[in-house]
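This week, study the protein below.
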Amino acid sequence: MTEADISRTGESDDTTTASPAEAVFPAGGLRVERIYTSEGVHPYAEVSWERRDVVMTNWRDGSVNFEQRGVEFPDFWSVNAANIVTTKYFRGAVGTDAREWSLRQLIDRVVHKYREAGEQHAYFASAADAEIFEHELTWMLLHQVFSFNSPVWFNVGTTSPQQVSACFILSVDDTMDSILNWYREEGLIFKGGSGAGLNLSRIRSSKELLSSGGTASGPVSFMRGADASAGTIKSGGATRRAAKMVVLDIDHPDIAEFVSTKAREEDKVRVLRDAGFDMDLGGADITSVQYQNANNSVRVSDEFMRAVDEAGEFGLRSRSTHEVIESVDAKGLFRQVAQAAWECADPGIQYDDTINDWHTNPETGRITASNPCSEYMSLDNTSCNLASLNLLKFLEADNSFSAEKFVKAVELIITAMDISICFADFPTESIGANTRDYRQLGIGYANLGALLMALGLAYDSEGGRALAGAITSLMTGVAYRRSAELAGVVGPYQGFARNAAAHARVMRKHAAATDGVRTLHDNDRAVLAVATKEWQRGNKIGEKNGWRNAQASVLAPTGTIGLMMDCDTTGVEPDLALVKFKKLVGGGSMQIVNQTVPRALRVLGYQEEQVEAIVEFIAEHGHVIDAPGLRTEHYEVFDCAMGARAIRAMGHVRMMAAVQPFLSGAISKTVNLPESATVEDIEDVYFQGWKLGLKALAVYRDNCKVGQPLSAGKEAKKSEPATAAAEPEKVVEFRPTRTRLPKSRNSRTTSFTVGGAEGYMTAGTYDDNELGEVFLKLGKQGSTLAGVMDAFSIAISIALQYGVPLETYVQKFTNMRFEPAGLTDDPDVRMAQSMLDYIFRRLALDYLPFDDRAALGIYSASERTRQLETGSYAPVEDGDDAQLETYSQSVPVEAPAGNDLADELDSGDAVVDETAVSAPARVHSSTELLETLMGSSADAPLCMNCGTKMRPAGSCFVCEGCGSTSGCS
């Protein structure tokens, strides 16, 4: 800190200036209190340490991706957490003495730099306060209470540039110099393993003229070059794949072209794949598809949304004159946005007026864009460093949420995050200048879904939303209160003076939103009471001192760092599923019921015998439907993102709405919809997001990026055209002919269970084994259900005998959703959305040839196993079909050599050992385990590093095998 800087921040006159190597302790510096540590005892002395070997392989080809033996971690750290930290965050060349080998070295490298910078920049009142700061930060990182974002672990304390930010927002103007500079700046950010977003709306549309008289190219054309650049840098082997966000305003004349770009490319993917090209993720030919490296979002205004609501006209405006050059039907344009999102999940939507209504710096400029995951929203050419708290660490043994510890933790973390800006390096001068002037921070949390379940609260419930809102309000309230205190020590952010009134206004809006939370339980009442006091106290301090940070909080995906903290759930997400995949020390794996399930059952009042029975049922079935002794009103507590009782789309939206008023930024989250969702469903989600006050929203319809291409050989033959010599007066009428089955025919009877409902199906065939009749027995004879199914069976049988192809029925009736639905007892079709969905999937497996089924996306268990082993579903010539190990096996776990399974189970990160069973041999992640339970493929990409199927983390994906992410944080 220079003398000019000290003068600008308004520090006390008795503060002496110092060289960069000297510590400065002003009289009015921060006093730091102990939370977790004890005087005279270092945090490292309180834990037991053990040595481990980390060997990471690509399970597809067995190649070793990484190997480091003898690394040191606390004994309570899971295998996944240790593996990810070792491979991702330890610095130095592998195999050399310069390589870090202990978690102590990593934490010390980072924490010592934060303490040193805090002392040099006059944050602490004394050396003793600085030492407490160091010890408390060390304790919380060691015990997985929170984590900084990945760039901190990559860079801080090394000889590399000290980049601490994961999120960047760029800008581009309507000049070629600016556009080319955009390409350059994005490339620098991607090279460093981070992501960036920007708004292209300043670029003239393809419907406008250039000063030379020609027609402008339009922003979509320039997106191609940026996309190619991102793809090239991604394939160059950076620490993560390129992540980017492209935003276009709804009133831009090229908005229709922008909206449809990725949907058209998805059509291209299907056509090329059908033609035999390798279009899989990472395939040789996928690079020919454009616009795949960016998330696209449309910026909508309140004016546009009101026009949609009123079915009115909306004007598209010239970029140079801002005059309306075209009027469109607002509802029709909104339908185009929803249609494209239905087809390929893009574009997402950002609500411009809501975003800027909560903007603390409007006098400096508008917020026009976001980072790739949509949680960081601020000025152009700025960045944000993130940190996330593990909420489950604040749940006490009596099931109370410790607001006191949470407050102290947030104080310490925000202090550290602000200190990092003092020494941080940035990829461009403009980003560095703006970030130092506005000091945007992004504190957030993970494990909300696990916390709610542990307390017996449903994710989609008023109680769940009340607690989530109260915690989020408390987090941001404390963060801004500490920011105001920091302003009194080292001065407010440089841009505060010109935005003082606006900043104070937004603080009052947050406080008012806190007053509007409706509490339902002791926990949310207690947390909200503390949050209310924090906002009142913080705003008073802010009126006097100003604030140190323009922004304080976001909810990020917490992908890699969520695994580092051993979190069951990421960000604001619910749990993925009730059964998880777990790696064991020394090798091997097992599947376990989530450790929060028994705790939730006890909170709900179940006795130990009942808990054991329910947990055992979940271990076998993967869901709670018909679990012994579990009351139906408690089912919702165990609803997850996927599985038999998946949370409804609006359940996700309402949770986002519950926490959004208490965030400086926004929320990284994707609202998942079933494959059967309609365009109207997506329209409703996007419209309700606006009404509920969200800042941004993204959707994903199951299988929308996969498609069900028809095989060329199976297309219906076209009739030959009539010849010129044909006599026009002759009319030949073709009628279908019924071919009855022989009196004696072969048949197959199948018993089945769908969602607990039992039934029988008898299928009769012709002599050539072609299906000719189906009889279904459901319910008691004489019941309405039995009568309807008898009539349905007769109708289907007659139609089959008249020549209606079975493929037609399979296409029409699979994925039809109604109750009963859920898990089945069929190893080939583990999950059905209805009785008809199961019946026609079973008939397809029994009577359709492989090529026909493959075109419809229906495979047997052995075929899915074969695809994991060989990369192909197609049968092998010798017919050796390896059978998939089902989830219902109950053999004891055989621990690998050198692994003490009892210690692993007693360490606190596993559940009752009676429910732990060996994971299926071909399962390598929780997503793959869930697929074996559901009997259907989950829409998640394969990790480009190790080949493991990734799992959702906010609006991104994270690999449980190696920690790689598809996002920027």
Remarks:
- The radius of gyration is 30 Å.
- Confidence is low (pLDDT under 50) at residues 1-19, 235-240, 706-732, 878-914.
